[in-house]
């Protein structure tokens, strides 16, 4: 029996599993070897057209797109699990029209996962997803990277059964985006990375479980309001120039994981986060008026098992309240200060990592945690300079009876 016959006689699901390890160019080559191989290639569960891998081979890109279109046509509505289209629009809108055609055919094949990435050399007004995408009942996941192209989301349309939406490097031209997402009743995960064109983003979705918004720099977004009863994970990375005009409001009573990186906004309302298991705060102040917001953020953390604080988050507390200390050399807050903050989550901590600077603030905080965190199992202390005088002896002296493991790591 020939190798070709052995391959063709394998069960269909095994053939498709083998083909899933091949790139589209290899699948195309295999489809020309025999009729049976062509049928197997046509009916694979995942199609991956990535023209961005061949930026200088324009003719090859066209041939690859032709074959992808033909594969979709020959499927004749047979179910397609995943379609990946990464394309560069160079000369005119022909490529755009062909991509839209492929998306229409994919919807006809009940596609479940769409991964789209587009780039261009010419300035266009906008790109619009075909209407059928929003009505596609089989679509569960949609990922779009537009490389700063304008994308139009029809405000009157809602995704039928979408569970995961990821948008990256997109200029949205519709302020109703938040309203549209809020109405996606099956949405579980939302990822927004450098999504521009929105000044006020309000998302209220009772089924949303994971929300991430990442901005390396975005001057337009002013107000972020996220609300959801089932939200258990929030990841915010937001940097800007003017903090006083920015605000963050979170209503997530069942939140388990919170990560906040960037600058402290002028107005914050996090509510009472009573079920947190892990908190990571890497916050800096760009304005003295925002320093008072950091203790408010701490007070919202009613309970957590794992706490990670960046050095800047602790440094920002220096300007919070004057203390009755006469010595000008004192740079930190003592245990009395931390006691006055009423940080209820301290009693729930099981793991803590903290980075030391050259002052006493971090040392006092570490000792306060060791004294009061009755459930603490491990504390990792990172330091770059020499340890403060008497540090080791104080750590040993002030530990709780639970005797947590204290690990010192130089960075």
Task: Characterise the protein shown here.
The protein is of the alpha/beta class and 411 residues long. The protein has a domain of 90 residues. It has a 15-stranded parallel β-sheet that branches. A 4-stranded parallel β-sheet has the order 8-10-12-14. The longest helix has 18 residues. About 3% of the residues have low confidence.
Number of strands: 19
Percent of residues in beta strands? 25-35%
Uncertain runs:
318-331
Give average pLDDT, whole number: 79
How would you characterize the largest beta sheet? 15 strands, parallel
Helix tally? Answer: 13
Distance between the termini: 62 Å
Radius of gyration (Å): 27 Å
Structural class comes to alpha/beta
Helix content: 25-40%
**Which word captures the global form?**
elongated
Protein name: F-box domain-containing protein
Domain F-box: 4-35
Organism: Quercus lobata
Question: What is the fold's blueprint, element by element?
Answer:
Blueprint lengths: L2 H6 L3 H8 L4 H8 L3 H8 L3 E5 L7 H18 L6 E8 L4 H15 L4 E8 L6 E2 L2 H5 L5 E12 L11 E9 L4 H6 L6 E8 L3 E5 L5 E6 L7 E5 L5 E6 L8 E5 L5 E7 L3 E3 L8 E7 L8 H8 L5 E4 L1 H5 L19 H6 L10 E6 L4 H12 L5 E6 L7 H7 L7 E6 L1
Parallel strand pairs: 1-2, 2-3, 3-5, 4-5, 5-6, 6-7, 7-9, 8-10, 9-11, 10-12, 11-13, 12-14, 13-15, 15-16, 16-17, 17-18, 18-19
Helix pairs in contact: 3-4, 5-6
